[in-house]
Amino acid sequence: EDDGGQPPQPGEPSGAYPSQGGAPAARGAPARITEAETARAEDRGVWKRVLARPKKEEASGAGDSKIAAMRKELRQINRQKAKAIDEEDFKRAKELQQRQKELSAQLKTTELQAKDQAASRLANAKDEIRHLEGLIREASEQGQLDLAVEIRQRRDKLRAEMRRMEWMQ
């Protein structure tokens, strides 16, 4: 119903939204954001941050390259086993399953060893930082400020490395 642009009479709804007493706007009710859309938007933000970080396998070093190779081999074995099952080559699938179990056990052992080594390196780094902090105090008390600055820079580098190691665990 067209009212000719006249202002609403007292008591008549005047708002564009139902909560204001009027009918919804011509283009329809405001769209509702679903939980799935919210989750997708949050995931995109999270993935941007995750992808910006170095992968644990890439950042850790030589010891973890062995772990990465074992994981890659496990994925290959899984694919081969699935293919063997599809082709109904159950003997080959059984062999691959056995190899998969052996490799999984090896991987678990290797990962535990790597974790122990990382914990040891982390403890050593903490001890070294304490030692460097003592040297910084000593150098500044003796008026050797240039030396104190050098030692502080070494300490700061070690702290950054330690934070990276903590993130890896």
Automatic annotation (TrEMBL):
Gene3D superfamilies hit by this protein: UVR domain (4.10.860.10)
Compositional bias ranges of the Low complexity kind: 21-33
Coiled-coil boundaries: 67-168
Region annotation Disordered: where it falls in the sequence: 1-67
Organism: Alexandrium catenella
Tagged with keyword Coiled coil: yes
Keywords: Coiled coil
Name of the protein this chain belongs to: UVR domain-containing protein
Basic and acidic residues compositional bias, start-end: 34-46
Coiled coil keyword on record: yes
